[in-house]
Specification:
The complex is a heterodimer of chains A (117) and B (110).
Chain A: E1 5-7, E2 10-13, E3 19-24, E4 31-37, E5 43-50, E6 53-56, E7 65-68, E8 75-79, E9 88-95, E10 107-108, E11 112-116
Parallel strand pairs in A: 2-11
Antiparallel strand pairs in A: 1-3, 3-8, 4-5, 4-9, 5-6, 7-8, 9-10, 9-11
Chain B: E1 3-5, E2 9-13, E3 18-25, E4 29-37, E5 44-49, E6 53-57, E7 60-65, E8 70-75, E9 84-92, E10 97-100, E11 104-109
Classes of the chains: A mainly beta (117), B mainly beta (110).
């Protein structure tokens, strides 16, 4: 079974440009998350989709960030216009909709490394 | 909101035992998980505690005390490959949003 895949793996863009990151979750997983890790710091929550709906987007830093999950399958995260402080690793993760007893295991992709120069 | 606290760095000797603590403040607590992340890699799941007590998985064990809002990850027989960052995480509610702690960077030395 394929894991969570992300594209691109690395991206270098200039300040003011636009970048779109894509995430394909594990097939059948209703929950999709975006996280960001900046300069070796904490893994910071950005937002959470349940199927195609945004369940929680409290972690999105500002309106330069737009996430979509059309059809409840893959998701995109667009940064427009990019700023220097947006540099970091953007992780996508997914999990099935299971009960409490199954724990909160989520499966991460390898991340998209974004460098804004 | 939710917050989790962990030590930022820990150094231990190969073959020894190390404990990484995690304290949390949250509502709607649904369990404590631990994840490992090697530099540049994807975080990977290690263990999960929904109830008080100790869960053992090979060289790794995890403990939870819900009354104390506290847990720890215990790594035994440390190996050099265990050098990584370790994150505790709490899940909130039935929709499984997962919030991570600040991470503990473990360095294993010979």
């Amino acid at each position: 079974e394929a894991g969570v895949t992300q594209f691109p793996s690395h991206s270098v863009i200039e300040k003011g440009q636009t970048v779109t990151l894509r995430c394909d979750p594990i097939s059948g997983h209703d929950n999709l998350y975006w996280y960001r890790r900046v300069m070796g710091k904490e893994i910071k929550f950005l937002l959470h989709f349940v199927k195609e709906s945004k369940q929680d987007e409290s972690g999105m830093p500002n309106n330069r960030f737009l996430a979509e999950r059309t059809g409840g399958t893959y998701s995109t995260l667009k940064v427009q216009p990019a700023e220097l402080e947006d540099s970091g690793v953007y992780f996508c993760a997914s999990s099935p909709s299971v009960g409490r007893s199954s724990g909160n295991t989520i499966y991460f992709g390898e991340g998209s490394w974004l460098t804004v120069v | 909101g939710q917050s989790l606290e962990q030590p930022s760095e820990v150094t231990a000797v190969e073959g020894a035992i190390v404990q990484i603590n995690c304290t949390y403040q949250t509502s709607g607590f649904y369990g404590l998980s631990w994840y490992q992340q090697h530099d540049g890699g994807a975080p990977t799941f290690l263990s999960y505690n929904a109830l008080d007590g100790l869960e053992e998985t090979g060289r790794f064990s995890s403990f939870l005390s819900r009354s104390d809002s506290y847990g720890y990850l215990l790594l035994q027989e440390l190996q050099m490959k265990d050098s990584a960052s370790y994150f505790c995480a709490v899940g909130i509610g039935g929709y499984q949003k997962v919030t991570f702690g600040t991470g503990t960077k473990l360095q294993v030395i010979p």
